[in-house]
Amino acid sequence: MKTKIYLLLLPVVMFMSCTQDDDSSQTKTLEYADFELKLNLEMTYNSLLEEFGEPSKDIGSGIHIYVYQLVDDTEIWIGYTNKIEYARHMDKDQQIIKEII
Fold this sequence. Notes:
Blueprint: H1 2-18, H2 32-38, H3 45-52, E1 57-58, E2 64-69, E3 75-80, E4 84-90, E5 96-99
Antiparallel strand pairs: 1-2, 2-3, 3-4, 4-5
């Protein structure tokens, strides 16, 4: 009887041990302070990704404008060519709150 129970539980245990929480699929929770303290002109695209994750979107035309959605429904817009040209904190109406860089 115990053997049958173990055999029935084996697939469940195997399935549970193979599944894992995938935090990479969840978007990173970002706040304005994250950018204010860490963003600098020397950052490359790869260092932006390492520090802040994938941008929510790229709305640029001619240059990249990487948009990061913040927890307070504001956004950070980073103008980028082969270097950071500017960084702006934008409100939900796409008005500049503050020039970061």
